[in-house]
Amino acid sequence: MTFRDEFKLLLRARYPLIYIPTYEEERVEASIREEAAQLGNRPIYTWDFVDGIQGNPNDAGFGKRNPLQALEFVEKLPATASAVFILRDYHRFLDDVAIARKLRNLARLLKSQPKNIVVLSPRVAIPDDLTEVLTVVEFPLPSGGEIKTEVERLLQATNNSLSSKTLDDLVRSCQGLSMERIRRVLAKAIATHGELQPEDVDLILEEKRQTIRQTQILDFIPATEQISDIGGLDCLKDWLIRRGGSFTERARQYGLPHPRGLLLVGIQGTGKSLTAKAIAHYWHLPLLRLDVGRLFAGLVGESESRTRQMIQVAEALAPCILWIDEIDKAFSGLGSKGDAGTTSRVFGTFITWLAEKSSPVFVVATANDIQSLPPEMLRKGRFDEIFFVGLPSQDERKAIFDVHLTRLRPHNLKSYDIERLAYETPDFSGAEIEQTLIEAMHIGFSQNRDFTTDDILEAASQIIPLARTAQEQIQKLQEWAASGRARLASKQSTPVDVWRQAN
Ligand SMILES: Nc1ncnc2c1ncn2[C@@H]1O[C@H](COP(=O)(O)OP(=O)(O)OP(=O)(O)O)[C@@H](O)[C@H]1O
């Protein structure tokens, strides 16, 4: 349902108190005005702390610097008069006893009157006693269509024309920004060279990077890794390759749904993050990484707003990949933590979105510890597939050595005994193989020569793989994987192999 549809429905159904979290005051007010006009020209009153009530010359300025009086104004109007009251920044006053009480009284009164109060605020900050009476409605960032109209308006105003491909590129690069920012960055582009040009896409992308960085929870990650950079994990790679064209228009016409996401579970250093990046590169989609730690940092109540904001930005940038690293850390111990209220509300928002989302945001979540993941996360319908990423088998280690040595010494690959290296490094993860190679390079470099197979073996002898120090964690993971609750990322490890390793 679009914002307009939902808002219209709430007005018709006489929802008295509506709360819209958005930074885009002007845009949301324009939408509200249009909807109110369609609903029998319902009058609009706005209130803010500085100017008081606006909308009717007789009452202009009423309730200035007095948020309680602003609510009393609602009662001043005849019971049969219809109206929409927009209260700007009103979240700041919701903690006040008198205001909370007044709002709850109004919630009762307005059920039988054609009036609605709309609270506008940049974030969701609702005290507990008002959660039942306030209905939160999300106001999405501008859609591709809205952005296109704005760009075309600007082009007309500046007597400028663009090819339809450049126009589409410009519009796509603006997705994820608020209208205010879009106008600003386009004005900057026009001020720079008098008109909009294809090169402005870079300027806009930079603005977008900055905005996304300002959310402090999402990061744009450049993804240059390819599927061929992943050694082993053949089942996972086959799964992806089969879905190669699934974000194309052709796939939509064929009737295919968008792939929803993957949960990758396994011990550290086995290539889960590498896979997230390779997926983004393979599908040519932007990669957004969610910093789960920062989602929960800060003031109480902010985590929920940030979660909504994260979802909004990801949806506005769709199609894209949303990579949630270490999702187990975010939601571990739900119900037992001190801040369990916040954690479970954030989890609730996230899991509902995951199950219901229709936008092409492909979620790649990675986790090390299956025990601490809430069971709801593993239920069908959340992710397309859950893959267990285990320690590489000997053949996979060969493939990983091959990937890294091809990158490091493309012309000298034959001089390395990859077969032996794979044989001599049991229990090594991909990350540990990479670390071994770096160590071997240090040995060679310090002696002014190239590094050899023997240097790699010496380096390997000095590394104690995590698999040996964290046996218990690995045992648990392997038992879980062997129980058939996840698909195995590697071809070599059949469920029986995993079971044998576990026992
Ligand atoms: N299967 C693999 N093929 C090639 N390189 C690998 C593989 N697995 C790991 N590596 C190397 O190890 C590095 C670290 O791996 P990565 O960060 O993907 O592991 P991870 O499973 O995400 O670990 P963590 O759980 O600690 O985040 C990669 O950048 C890559 O260079």
TrEMBL record:
InterPro entries, sorted: AAA+_ATPase, AAA_domain_protein, ATPase_AAA_core, P-loop_NTPase
CDD domains, sorted: RecA-like_Ycf46-like
Cross-referenced Pfam families: AAA (PF00004)
Domain AAA+ ATPase: 258-393
Classification via Gene3D superfamilies: 1.10.8.60, P-loop containing nucleotide triphosphate hydrolases (3.40.50.300)
Keyword Hydrolase: no
GO molecular function, one term: ATP binding
Keywords noted in UniProt: ATP-binding, Nucleotide-binding
Family named by the database record: Belongs to the AAA ATPase family. Highly divergent.
Protein's UniProt name: Uncharacterized AAA domain-containing protein ycf46
Organism, as annotated: Dulcicalothrix desertica PCC 7102
